[in-house]
Amino acid sequence: MPDLIRDLRDSSSSSGNKPRAKAQKWIISTTEGGLNITVVGQFTVDDLQLNTIGGVYADVTSVNMAHPISQWIRGQLETITLTSEFFAEHQDDEITSRFADLLRLTRRDEKLMRPPVCVFSFGTKLSMMCHLEHVANVAYGPLRPDGTPQRIRFTLTLRNYTPSVVNPTDPSKPEHQSRMRKVKTGDTYESISADEYGEAMNGEFLRRWSGYRPDLKEGDEVHILAADYIARQGRVRPRSAILYQMTVNPKVAVLLMAARAGSLIDV
Hints:
CATH topology of the largest domain: Elongation Factor Tu (Ef-tu), domain 3
Shape: elongated
Mean pLDDT: 77
Order of helices and strands: HHEEEEEEHEEEEHHEHHHH
CATH architecture of the largest domain: Beta Barrel
């Protein structure tokens, strides 16, 4: 929803130059999966809010750090919340079917196996693809003699929908599967990692997977982990806080890497 804030501002500023009923009428509709539902609001919306702009962060801490490191994890999904109503202006007006169509857009469709993707528009400036997340704060009244409501007031929450494509895993590609690699003269866990993943430090993962076997020799086999597995492991660091502090000292780090003994690493 990159232009949503601008569209909300433009819609608000331009509505004063147009008739209220025309400029601020909202519509939500879908034709996905063979559905054909269009719900048109009668009045202007109240309390239109744009929610959750920004991202999700995590604070990474370690021993002797004065401040945590703030790391961006992912973006957040923008939502719009608005309040509106249906009103029966005449005795013969029926508004419950219109409200039922609105509720249907929140429910799982049997063909799609999910709620449909809708198009929401407000006035002449704002338009977005969305899912109707839920209808809440529903208030009926006054009721007419036949029991049907003359007014239904409600709050809508719309989730921004951005089409995305997830590439399927191809088992024929080595980056999606583990395999064994024969060691050549001069190979180390770090040199193999640099060749396989483009990052020598990931050799620590290969070393751990091999049970902290000492220096490699020609003819040995190293289990090459899938690249997507390596990517999920995050930053490489020794397993204990004490060893992490020791490796800050370059001389100690050299001795530690030279030892490569399981009993030392697993302190």
